[in-house]
Amino acid sequence: MGKDVTFRVFRGEPDEDGDSCGEMVDYTVEMDEGMVVLDVIHQIQTEHAPDLSCRWNCKAGKCGSCSAEVNGKPRLMCMTRMSDIEEETPAGQPVLVKPMQAFPLTKDLVVDVSWAYELNKTITPLAGPAEFDWNFQQNEADRVQEFRACIECMLCIDTCHVLREHKLFDEFAGPRFFVRLANLEMHPLDTEDRLASIKDEYGIGYCNITRCCTDVCPAGINITDNAIIPLKERIVTEYYDPIAWVAKKIGLRK
Amino acid sequence: MTDVTTHEYDVVIIGAGGAGLRAAIEATRKGATVAIICKSMLGKAHTVMAEGGAAAALGNADPRDNWQTHFRDTMKGGKYLNDWRMAEIHAKESPDRIRELEQWGAIFDRTPAGLTNQRNFGGHTYPRLAHIGDATGLEMIRTLQERGIHSGMEVFMEYTVRKIFTNDGKAIGCFAYNRADGTLHVFKAKTTVLATGGITRCWEVCSGSWEYTGEGHALAYWAGAEMGDMEFVQFHPTGMIWPPSVKGILVTEGVRGEGGMLRNSEDNRFMFNYVPEMYKPEFADTESEALEWVQEVIDGKLATKRRPPELLTRDVVAKAINSEIKAGRGSEHGGAYLDISWRDEEDVRKKLPGMYHQFKELAGVDITTQPMEVGPTAHYVMGGVKVDPLTQETTVQCLYAAGEAATGLHGANRLGGNSLSDLITFGKRSGEYSAKAAAEMDGWEEIPQSEIDDIIAETLAPFNRKGGENPATVVNELRKMMQEKVGIIRTKDLLIEALDDLNDFAARGKTTSPGGSRIYNPGWHQALEIDAMVDISRMCTMAALAREESRGGHTREDFPTPNHSHWGKINSVIMMGESGEMVLEHRTYPPMRDDLKDLLDASDLHEEEE
After folding, report:
1. Same domain, yes or no, for A104 and A204?
2. Each residue of A104-134: pLDDT tens digit?
3. Is there a domain that residue A254 lies in?
4. H or E stretch including A94?
5. Helices (H), A89-174
6. Which residues of chain B have pLDDT under 70?
7. What residue numbers bound the domain in which A28 lies?
8. Catalytic residue ranges of B
9. Which pLDDT score, from 0 to 100, does residue A254 have?
């Protein structure tokens, strides 16, 4: 209690071309025990800058609203404890807080993620049973329940170099949506086939398995190993496996 | 700078949590054009935070369960102030609403037979809550979101609605501003659905986010709708209490459903001392019997023993913890100990992954080896907009309400799990009936320009005020005041003081100056929320002052017992009087059908006292 902390926070808006335009501003506030980064941001709003923009909702890692880059690392501000931040920040240096860099800026710590909502709409939805008569086991549920834990914080998108550096937003769906696609493809009640779109429209081939997305996932989803790689394997079997190709030709496989 | 964009939709739904999304899916299915307006981004609404499960008498985990028992449990838990017609509909229809979610992609945990599994919760006679670990709300909102985005509904994200326009007692549209870019919008609507959630942000210690400022409730009241049961606020017994920055964050009742035990600083399992007379026959009176019940549940057997008293209804458990703290037997940081560490580590992590994570990350506590510290947190409002039990139409024509924004289903106390099933049961009905009503209307009514101009002026007013208080200061002080004077235990003197204080807050709210621009400005947004918070707090305080008894979520130190013969049968109703003043009345629901009455515990009804 009583210790001061200084945050260096990005303040700004896009310029006429849509590029980020602003400055890093220092704010010092007093800390209380057990604070997280989001508490400090709220303290700054209350004491210094009521108009500092930031998204948040649940404050417990369940909604995925308060994504930002703290000391250069994409994370949820509500689940990042100040005790950890103090440890990693060099003595005498301020804590750096910036918005997610992969998305266009709205203002301060808020970015425009409408790309994600538009892309989501293009995914073929679940084709479930018409009647209430299904039945499946927990082990089948387990396979997809991991994917259901996604809170759509978009930190995986923010960190993915295909999107962050190469800006292939029109050709590549990104980790969050491979998680959704894997969920649908492995869903015990689904009868659709989305492999062609995963290969072509959603460009899964661009992913070269650097596992950055898995590293930043606050829901602990093993995105690379459990979602992306199995989808890649299915595509290889479907489109590039010569034995499967022959089997299909002679009618042994659909 | 005061350009306004006008939109026209058959049905405008305000709120995109479980109720709003379910309403949108149903209304589009009926052929209506639908706009759904939400304060946050899609998929982030309060429903996402729900943990334990959705209650429905599927009878999968225990075939003895049926809608009749669910009806009985809901009425008993609500201390018989519920609208029995809604309780009946909810008990009968919720199983199909749950099955429908699975049909649309939800993956609830399974029974060994491959059916939707169900867990035990407070006040439910049988295991009844469909769940996925302790993240059931996320599953529900994601399923509805993924269904909804393909339904044709138009989503307006990060918009705040500030007024519902009426003409001759009929809702004809609303005014909203875009929080991200500050643009102004008028929505002309044939029918409007309020699915705006709750009000618990009016208290300092709460499980709600910034969204829970009660604007939906206030919009209805300002439009002339009747509000019911506003004194009944649920203080959930188990919120986190330490460290200070997490105070209020919810700890799911699922912990107790999975065998969590409550203890005080003297290591006494105190809930055995707090079993109310009406629940005595159903609850264990020894620790060994309680433990045998848990063991039966863990082993997947049908329970034959009586339940542990930790599974009493939330009102009872919250007051018990409060009493222990007041008696000086609180935990280290002033709460109670909740212990699940006696169960197998693997089970705890599978059934309560969110709680494991939450305590580990935020409090440095490993719940598989250590007890949690918990205390009451403002969680839910049973009160809300009064609705027709079948159609969900409010007393304002063409205005509907569903979910937490509406009242009736839960009476004086809501059972855990009955909220998620409320959302989908009555969300569906509100969507269905609002779309039907819209289909019978030819076009949109004109909204008078003068009314649009007035609300725009009011919305932009904070920018014209210089040198006033930071809106956050006013809001923080209001929340502290409500916590202290209209909290879990209430008295006449403090309630009267609260009403005076609220007049001051109303005045201060009109002088705040947030500064900044219209682009994503939280200070401006907060400045605009204060009027709603003040009026909602006033409703709660007024109704609490009038109800001179203790029942469910409302406890009066000066009237500590229930008064069955009088208050046990009447509900409070608040509306705006002719000169804009807040008016309180008391009313009774129509008499219950005999076949339903037969399902209830005769001794609870106190008919001999009439």
Report:
1. no
2. 999 999 999 999 999 999 999 999 999 999 9
3. no
4. none
5. 114-122, 138-148, 155-159, 161-164
6. 1, 608-610
7. 4-111
8. 236, 256
9. 60
